[in-house]
Amino acid sequence: MATITPPPVENSRGPKFLPRRFFSYGAILYICSNQKPNTMTIERKDLIGQEFQGRKASRVIEILAGGTFRAIHEAEALVKELGYRVGSMCGPEPIGFALGYDYVAKWYNIDHRDRSRLDGLLLHDGGFREGGVKIVFFKQPHLGE
Known about the structure:
By secondary structure, this protein is of the alpha+beta class. It has helices spanning about 70-80, 110-115; strands spanning about 10, 15, 40-45, 50, 55, 60-65, 85, 95-100, 120-125, 130-135. A 6-stranded antiparallel beta sheet has the order 3-6-10-9-8-7, covered by helices on one side. A two-stranded antiparallel sheet has the order 1-2. Strands 4-5 form a two-stranded antiparallel sheet. The longest helix is centred in the middle third of the chain and has 12 residues, at about 70-80. The protein is globular, with a radius of gyration of 17 Å.
């Protein structure tokens, strides 16, 4: 499958998306400069064993902010690449992910019993829009084998 990267459409606030008609064929087009996203991924060994939402973390990866929604998109891609199903964004609430499920609901629709079944969370630092994201694994990560 070839990757199509058309030139950005500039306006006073930087690159923007093309009109909706370009998305009608199911292709995902990333409209941005030819540079890679300026996000940085850090393994946070100092946070292993700390509690997040009442559960201890077995691994924490932090993706630093790098532009509008870039950190969350990169975090979701990393988690999906490992084979996990990622829930939907729900304002400032965490986003859960789990292995072996067809669907993960938004945070406010997951009861406490089901929250304990999640394999991990995506947490924001200053909001998902412009802030960084922490990927918190409660179990050792599945390596997509």
